Amino acid sequence: MSSATRLAIHPLRHPEGSKVDFGALVTGIDIEKLTDADFDLVRTALFTHQVLVIKNQSHLSPRAQFALNHRLDPSAAPSYGHGSQKGRGTDRSILHPDLKTIPHQPQVQVIGNGFVAAYEGLENITLRHPHHRTFHATTIPAERDLTHTRFYRWHIDAALYGATLAPPVVTTLLAVQVPKGRRQICQYEDDGAGDGDELDVPLGTTAFVSGETMYGLLSEADKAFARTTRVEYAPHPYVWMSAAKSRADGLGLVSEGKEVPLDDLPPWEDAELQILPMCWKNPVTGNLALQIHPSAVRRLHLADGAVVDDLAEVRAIVHRLQRPGIAPPFVYPHDWEEGDLVIFHNRGVLHSVVGAFAEDEVRLFRQCNIAGSTFPVGPEGTAAA
Ligand SMILES: [Fe+2]
């Protein structure tokens, strides 16, 4: 508890059996009227706890939401984390249909499910939550469709292409409208007969895992590999992957040769490719997080200069490193309530959308992130190539 304010940070209490060691509830704070002293506490708490939950922020304006993001990376240009979608030939991006931009605050996007007549200058919009039938290589049988769900895509919010579009430091998510009541079983593997990992989740949860935990679970040999390997992402990765399907556990894609050939992508150049460290250093604690976007990765650059460019092999290596960190005890599935503002350290966690909604279940969220002012720093203090 700060002596100057009523702000308090409460580490989240996770259910029995959980091994989640991140997340905190921040109380006594109004993000719309954030003082400098409170901001400093929030910033430190964010990099310490990775995910912050602030209740009762329904009144938060898009402007104040953006201002919070920008204050957490004040040198960043005020542009959305994926850059402008216009004029770059990226209409084929898998992200394109899921985002509606708020006209008066273009760094803030509306996402969700169902029809919304009017919201913040947007009119008659239909929001589309992904569905496992279109996202994954295999489907959940129809008889389990309402009761079971999957992780869609474990990811970092990042363009991963473009010399000026560094991964955003933070993402903020505001729950404006949330359908409540149901829970679902999130099923990891193809076989739903009960012999794979499962996790009980609230409908439409956002699931988080810690990149620091993911790193900590590695063997010493794998830690050394992760500390010295760099990850090359595909050019226009969200177009490149647009026809490929997710693994059942949402942790990367299956390799069926469905990626858009590099020659068929929108124009791209080597200088715009992103080759990032596999581990990113926390700017406050110095801890390392294993931070790989498993669906966008295309090649691995090893310490000895060798390049692994067989896509199936690259994906197998990345999946082997990441999978222990998404096991059920390490997942925090946030149970959204209207007015929740969640601020997460996008360079220290991975997250995934979960759940299948009925058409009449309206879900409306506001998301903001801005491209980072600098690229993530790896273990040796070297910036990305
Ligand atoms: Fe995201």
TrEMBL record:
PANTHER family, sorted: ALPHA-KETOGLUTARATE-DEPENDENT XANTHINE DIOXYGENASE XAN1 (PTHR43779:SF2), DIOXYGENASE RV0097-RELATED (PTHR43779)
Domain called TauD/TfdA-like: residue spans: 22-366
Gene3D superfamilies per record: Clavaminate synthase-like
Cofactor(s) needed for function: Fe(2+)
Protein name: Clavaminate synthase-like protein
Any single Pfam family the record assigns to this protein: TauD
InterPro entries according to UniProt: TauD-like_sf, TauD/TfdA-like, TfdA_dioxygenase
Keywords: Dioxygenase, Iron, Metal-binding, Oxidoreductase
Family: Belongs to the TfdA dioxygenase family.
GO molecular function: dioxygenase activity; metal ion binding
